[in-house]
Amino acid sequence: MSYISVVGGTGLKGEVCLQGSKNAALPVVAAAVLCNGTVTIKNCPDISDIRDLMQALSYAGIVSTLCDNVLELDTTGAKPVFFGPDLAGKTRGGVLLLGAFVGRFKEAGMAYPGGCVIGARPIDLHCKVFQRLHLDLREEEEGVFVKGTPKGARIVLPFPSVGATENAILASVCGRGRTEIMGAAREPEITELCLFLKHAGARIWGEGTSCLVIEGVPYLHATEYTLSGDRIVAGTYLAASMITGGEVVIRKTERVCMKGVLEPLRTMGAMIYREKELMYLHAPKVLQPIRFLETAPFPGFPTDMQSQTVALLSVAKGNSCICETVFESRFGVVPELLKMGADITCKDRCIFVHGKKGLCGTNVTASDLRSGAALVLAALAAEGESKISGCEYIARGYENICETLRGIGAKCSMREE
To answer: What is the pLDDT of residue 155?
Structure first.
């Protein structure tokens, strides 16, 4: 069994080249299904979520290669298939294949999606989107089946769900007529999906706003696209330097939107400077608490940075409170931080953190992607060695995390028991 070994107590200092965005790559890879020909995606992160999606697509006749962060997908032999639990259960990005396949082939079927255990993350909203597009939808024990030609409609989302917005876009770009998506998610990854699709011939207006307008086109053509850097990975490495009292430069950040990510770090005392292609952070001598912070859809504080921020606040000077409003069960990091000596309590959807000077290295287990990253952060600040199991979750979103951290001075390595 693999685990990550971290020996804490070293201030991190140096430069990190930012990987491509996971949350943009997954919908863009799904969108490639809509294109007839070869699609080239540059700056694609080489992470297990992408590899799992590539494997799923291979069952549908799509040939793909990923080398040096360039992903090529040949969709000329694509065909509709049912994605069983062995494929759909590995990554949450798989649910987007429903919209992509029904958009191109007018039929799609998938077992209920899997991924991290951070809450129910139901697909009810996705199903309602498909029904609004005049598609026949069946929910059966083995999965979800969608069939028909998407037809223009006015879709009003009760909550700005990123996944439901993406599926609405994917299903409607090659449909008939005009589709309006009201209350759409505004995350940068939605904008990237729209830009990619427009490169391939889609007609979309309003990207970056809560109202998207899509005029269906008969087909999409082969294209090439370069993904922006990953804003959550950037935030994680900034936090890693911050929790150790170090300083770091993050490069390749020219198109990375950090709104909602940097503000809490600044509140805790970090000095952050940004130019077009880099970000620089100098950590304070003492981390300051945050009296109240809540996760929210973009442009608010992202839920994907909640666990890492809890780790930071566990060594801040004073009391803090974070309220989780997006996922009801995203507290997996808390019991593991308690093992390391943190003083944290939870009530309803709020996490109360009483910061203390030091943590102690011990054996902990990641239960999801971001809790795994948070445990690595905590281990960097802890006294002694920590062993972090469940590192397969971390590999879902972070490319070579140990190598990257070693490059800025961390004592961190992947090991086998």
So the answer is: 98
What is the model's pLDDT at position 220? 97
Tell me which residue of 220, 194, 197 sits closest to 209, measured CA to CA. 194
Strand partners, 353: 320, 344
Dump pLDDT digits (tens) for 31-90.
Answer: 999 999 999 999 999 999 999 999 999 999 999 999 999 999 999 999 999 998 887 767
Least Cα distance to 296 among 323, 320, 265 occurs for 323
Gap between the Cα atoms of 247 and 309, Å rounded: 17
Question: What pTM does this model have?
Answer: 0.95
Tens of pLDDT, residue by residue over 234-255, are 999 999 999 999 999 999 999 9
Placement of tokens 């990207």 in the chain: 207
Q: Would you name the residues annotated as active-site residues?
A: 116
Amino acid 112: pLDDT: 79
Domains of the chain with bracketed CATH: 2-19+229-416 (3.65.10.10), 22-226 (3.65.10.10)
Tokens of 49: 């979520």
CA distance 166 to 206: 14
Tokens describing residue 12: 């991190």
DSSP 151: B
Whether 384 has a pLDDT exceeding 90, the answer reads: yes
Short-list 361, 382, 403, 388, CA closest to 2: 388
- From the centroid of its chain, how far is CA 56? 19
Q: Give me 57's structure tokens.
A: 């697509």
The DSSP letter of residue 94 is: G
- CB-count exposure of residue 167 (10 Å: 0-12, 13-18, 19+): buried
- 176 bridge partner residues: 151
C-alpha span between 40 and 400 (Å, rounded)? 22
| Cβ proximity of 119 and 146 under 8 Å | no
